């Protein structure tokens, strides 16, 4: 990456090293493929927004982030834009906690949400700002990847088994849609284990809307909810159920297509 790095260039031309501001090198092929697949799907304005925000965060917060942030953040933003244009608003039960414990990331994300609303003509709110802020928190290089990795891994594996059996499908574990679900389940598992989740009803309208629109995915998630409660002792609120339903619907749709 670099300002004007592709100006008057075509495939096969050399790039002056002095114009290069950042290089991306992935140790795992799956991560590289995920980045390529995702950014081929994104419109240029979304790519510019993502790259600009990460650069601003590095400079403002004086942080170094894992390169996976370019995948997770871009994917989250693209999904948020799609949901906003479809009129689906998801309440984030962690807004208060994010605002309190990660004020720098939260305030920066609020600025970014305002920028998105202006440039893309959306109406995103603080719930999305909190979600974006968590991406920055989890991508800090000094933080490691996730806490409680062992239990979270088991939860993810069991949930994927439920989805696989319910739909009688297999997953392409290198696909972008699969990586999206894995990322969401990591965050979900981390919130459940750390006790950051909430069990009160936040937005019953959203829950009913998603349940009626995607009945098959909703039935699958009902099985996951039962598993988490009876086998793990974790209770999901209606917003988590709705969000998980959307992710599973998206995964299955991409597999079937």
UniProtKB/TrEMBL annotation:
Question: Which branch of life, at top level?
Answer: Bacteria
The record's section on PANTHER family has: CRYPTIC BETA-GLUCOSIDE BGL OPERON ANTITERMINATOR
**Sequence ranges assigned to domain PRD in this UniProt record:** 41-146, 147-257
One GO term of the biological process aspect: regulation of DNA-templated transcription
Q: Which UniProt keywords apply?
A: Repeat
Q: Does the keyword Repeat apply?
A: yes
Say yes or no: keyword Ubl conjugation present.
no
Give one Pfam family. Answer: CAT_RBD
Question: Which named protein is this?
Answer: BglG family transcription antiterminator
- InterPro entries with a match to the protein in the record: BglG_antiterminators (IPR050661), CAT_RNA-bd_dom (IPR004341), CAT_RNA-bd_dom_sf (IPR036650), PRD (IPR011608), PRD_sf (IPR036634)
Q: State a single Gene Ontology molecular function.
A: RNA binding
């Amino acid at each position: 990456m670099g300002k004007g790095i592709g100006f008057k260039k075509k495939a096969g031309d050399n790039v002056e090293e002095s114009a290069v501001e950042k290089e991306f090198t992935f140790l795992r092929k799956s991560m590289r493929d995920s980045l390529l697949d995702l950014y081929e799907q994104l419109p240029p304005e979304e790519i510019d927004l993502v790259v600009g925000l990460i650069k601003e965060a590095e400079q403002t917060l004086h942080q170094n982030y894992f390169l996976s942030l370019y995948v997770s953040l871009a994917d989250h933003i693209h999904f948020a834009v799609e949901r906003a244009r479809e009129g689906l608003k998801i309440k984030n039960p962690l807004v208060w906690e994010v605002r309190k414990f990660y004020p720098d990331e939260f305030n920066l994300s609020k600025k970014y949400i305002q920028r998105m609303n202006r440039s893309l003509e959306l109406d995103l709110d603080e719930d999305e700002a909190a979600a974006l802020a968590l991406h920055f928190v989890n991508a800090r290089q000094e933080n490691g990847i996730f806490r409680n990795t062992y239990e979270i891994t088991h939860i993810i594996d069991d949930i994927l088994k439920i989805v696989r059996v319910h739909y009688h499908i297999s997953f392409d574990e290198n696909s972008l849609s699969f990586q999206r679900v894995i990322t969401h389940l990591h965050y979900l598992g981390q919130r459940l284990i750390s006790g950051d989740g909430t069990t009160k009803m936040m937005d019953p309208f959203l829950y009913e809307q998603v349940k009626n629109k995607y009945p098959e995915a909703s039935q699958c998630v009902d099985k996951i909810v039962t598993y988490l409660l009876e086998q793990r002792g974790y209770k999901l609120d209606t917003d988590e159920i709705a969000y998980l339903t959307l992710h599973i619907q998206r995964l299955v749709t991409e597999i079937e297509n």
